[in-house]
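User: I'm designing a mutation panel for Gfo/Idh/MocA family oxidoreductase and want to avoid disrupting the core. Could you give me a predicted structure to guide residue selection? Please restate the sequence first so the numbering is unambiguous.

Assistant: Good idea. Sequence first, for numbering, then the predicted structure tokens:
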Amino acid sequence: MSSPIGVGFIGVGVISDTYLENLNSFPDVEVLILGDLDTERAASQAAKHDVPASGTAADVLAHPGVQVVVNLTIPAVHAEISSAAIAAGKHVWTEKPLGMDRTSTAALLQQADAAGLRVGCAPDTVLGPGFQTAKRAIQSGVIGTPLFAQTSMQYQGPEVFHPNPGFLFARGAGPLLDIGPYYFTALVSLFGTVDKVVALGQRAQLERAIRVGDRAGETFPVEVPSTISVLTAFEAGQQATSLVSFDSPLARQGVVEIHGSEGSLVVPDPNMFEGRVAFVRPFEEFGETPPEQEWIEIPQTGKVTGRGLGLLDMVRAIHEDRPHVASGELGYHVLDIMLSAEESAASGDFRTVESSVQPVPAVPAEFDPFEKTL
């Protein structure tokens, strides 16, 4: 791969802004063209971010300089668009989830492998200096042997700010598939393959009302659990409990706690690229009332960027012939975990997660997105 690596976008919705801002700051990549069903919107984004060309998805796939396609389309067509990019000879970076079902998503990875092409999948927040600082601390043994984890994302739901929230309560969404990828990607990045899951879900309401915007007061159906609790068992022996909810009056987001034999560590919000990393030691002894525990802060190391970091790591990994962090394999395993949790919540049974993942590599502390390396 020559430098800089040519990149094209298919889909230029709201999230494309942060991708473009970051990718345009990385010297190892160059955004060449933006494509969208709405070609006027693609042209507007191209002008806004100084991208030299715009057009349709077909224009992106036909562009001779594009080596990597960024797939920012709606989740329902993620696998279809990614497959078309691979058929055109392009590597793919896709927003989460990798796909909507196991069959088409597994076929996508098989297609890429047969073509000798890479697939990367969001979230790439796990490459951020916040999460990586926490991962290196765990690997260095600051909390001893990791035993179990707790994660939580809960609030009253997106209808309080989103003018068209119905799709977030439809099949293929809900808090599990919308927000869950951040938390399960973080857990798998720390502990490895999940062996089995069991879950409980509920729909607090069968219909909900839009609260903001021109359609305020309109109702929409709730098709999936709006609250789901998932217990995961990892092949390496750890366990985790995870709550995702659109029903909680108490807002609590970004909770990731890892508890080990010699301490407990807080990990930054997995939806962010930076944040606090700190741990506590076990008490040696205490009387009737335990004393307040002392938090030991761990300084964050690494340069903070944002979305697009996973794509940068992928193109450097291709050049260096090494695995990339936010891989299609990881994205598929996380999808399999979440689908298994949905199936468990519906049946009440434990579900074996059939897929597996190789240990997720760490990002070196000296990784510099702003360095020209290719």
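For picking mutation sites, this is relevant: The chain has two domains: 5-121, 126-297. The longest strand covers residues 146-154.
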